[in-house]
Structure formats: structure tokens, C-alpha cells
Amino acid sequence: MMNFVGNYYNYFLTDILTISAATVGTILLVARIIDAIAVPVAGGIVEMAHQKWGKYSTWLWVAPPLTGIFIALMFTGPNFQPAVLSFFLGSMYVLAHLTINLAEASQYALIPVIAQTPADRILLSSRRAQAMSAGQLIFGLVAPSLIILLGGNNEGRGIFLTVLFFAILQMLGYWLVAKVAQPFDGAKTASSTSNISLKDMALQVVTNRPLFILIVAEILRWTANIVIGNFAVYYFKYVAQNQALIAVFFTCSSIATFLGSAVGQFVTQKLTKKQSWYIGMSINFLALIPARIFAHNTVLFITFAAVAAVGHAIVMNLSAAFFADVAEYTQHKTQKDAKGVIMSLNSLPIKISVALSGAIAGYSLALIGYDPSVAVTSRIIEGIISFSTLIPAFFAFISILAIKFYPLPDRIQDLSEA
Questions:
Q1: What ranges do the domains of the chain cover?
Q2: Which DSSP string corresponds to 36-73?
């Protein structure tokens, strides 16, 4: 579902609803900033509210149905005045993501509850990354075909029905997680009381140095990954001039991500988490340069984009384990349990990256004069090529520099030395 939102929402707004690229950039930037701010709030709600069905798993039952409704409404075009329509779409985006924040915060908070050792956390983090890449693979295989199948000659209807289908699946998926997590998140967890205050929760974001550095590095690497997907629809429509190939692109990227997550599990067993990050994001950066050079050759563009996805997937394996270490480090230093807040921040970099990527896509297209109602020029084509490769390459490189400052050791036993 979220792959669909990330890859198709810009396109839905600009080409289906014919909203100007600059307006789309503004709608998504404002909505996504609100969404990002709401992430630690969701973590605080999850941490402080204790339910008899489980401290964390309760939210996995309650929030996803609401998310499905709001996500579906995001892909509608009511006959409103332009300003009202923009407000409506932005509001649906915010409400959809507020509810999914509650589910994500709960899901992430369960990781240190279930996985008690460093090895278990790496394993669970790797399995999660592999499942995410499997979801991407399924998305790439079925999404373009579903749009055509369900929409017929009406692309907008096909997009709406496809995202509705994925929204129902995410609800069923979260309910499955809630069922599986119940033995770990039982009465003991539900009745536990966090002794961290709202002020402490807010301060974690800016005063916890390992957490701050990790969030910055994660924002940079996710932005490097998401920007490519945001421009993919435009690349295959205007550069490759074959929209059917986008299914090949998503499928190849998903297969590469799945392979990268498998390779990443092996790499993280042999190297430290920071060393694994250097290797993964270096592969990502180095693959995007020839992707720019050979972008007019669609086969080579898809190939190098897939190699970049392998590098990103290696690092994706580490995310949950990094945040679980920071959660334990914070509890060690402050003697306060903040798992719900800190683990919920695992999704904050993705939210911020989606906001940055959407704004980058909207404003970049506006900068080169993109208008879907006017024939494209060579300037627009070259702009799409450069934006879809050089921008993510820049963010990949900066992420390597950022993670160098991450101070925590790999072994939890050594946290007292950090």
C-alpha cells in the first residue's frame, strides 16, 4: 500500500487530477511535515496508553481499518473548488498517516520486546527487511496490471480500486501481526507503566545524540531511494516513452531489493553495522552515476537502478536493529523506558524522506516547466533524467558521511562505554 502511495500519488495528482506540479509540491510538503511531526506523538500515545489486549498489539487491531478508509479517499477527486480540493486531499493524507503512525509505532515497539539479544535483533530486522522487499516485489508485479484490469479505459478509477485493494491487504496484515505478537505482548507488557514524561519523549528527538545522528542518516538514505521511485512514472512516460516498462522497472528493483536484503544479512554477520552501511550506500551511490550516463538506454537505466537497490537493501536490514540498540542505550543512560517512542521514530526518517522527495519531485518538475498538457521538450526530458539519478546519488553519498558520526558500538554489552 505504501509503495503505491509513494510511487503513484504525485502522478495521480498531476496527471489524473491535473493539479499543477508546484501546487502538488506544496500540498505534499505541508501534509508530510505534519505527518512527520505526528510520528513521536504516536509513539507517546502508544507508550502511555495501556490496553488489556496488549500494550502495543491493541493498536494493530484498531488503527489499520481507519488507515484504509483515508488512504482510499486520498485517491479521489471530488468536484470541489481548487483550494478546497487541495485542502481535502492534504487532510486525507494527514489522517491516513496519523492512523498508520499508531500501527507502525506499535509494530516497531514490539521488536525489542520480542528480540532480547543483539543477534535476535539483527535477525528480526533482516527478516523484516526481506518481507518488505517481498512486498515491493509483489507491488511491482501486480500494481500496473491491476490498474489496467480494474480501470479499463479509466486510469483514475484503476488507481483508486488498486490502492483500495492494497489498503484492505494492509489491514489484514496488521491483524495477523497482532495475533502473532499476543504471546509476547500480554498482560505483563500491557500493565507496565512507562516512567518517561511527555517532555522527556519530546527531548529524545533532539538531545539523544545517537538517535539524532541515526535519524539524519536514515533520512538521507531513504531520500536517495524514494526520489528514484517518484520520478519513475515520469521517466517511463516521457524518456523511455513506454509506460508498460515501469512494471519491469519495479519488478527488477524489487528482486534486487530482495537479493540485497539476503546479502545484507550475510554482510552484517561478518562486519559491524557501520561498515555494512558504508558498503551498501557506496554501492547505491556508484550505481546511480552510470544510471545517469546511460539513462537514454532504458535497459541499462533499469539495470543500474536495480544495482542501486541492492546497495540500499543491504542497509535496510540494519534499521530496526539500530533503533533497538538506541532504545536500550537510552534506557541504560536514563533509567527510563522509552521503547515505544524511540522505536516509533524508525518510521520518522521515511516520513521526512517522503516529504522531501515529494517536494523535490514537484518543485523540480516546476523548475523545468513541466506541464502534462503540453508536449515535452528535450530540456524536460534531460531534467527528468538528471533529477531521477543525480539527486538520489547526492543523498546516498551524504548518508555515508553522516553515519560516520554514529557513536554506539555493535555489542549491547559495550553500551556503558558509549
A1: 2-417
A2: HHHHHHHHHHHHH---TT-TTHHHHHHHHHHHHHHHHH
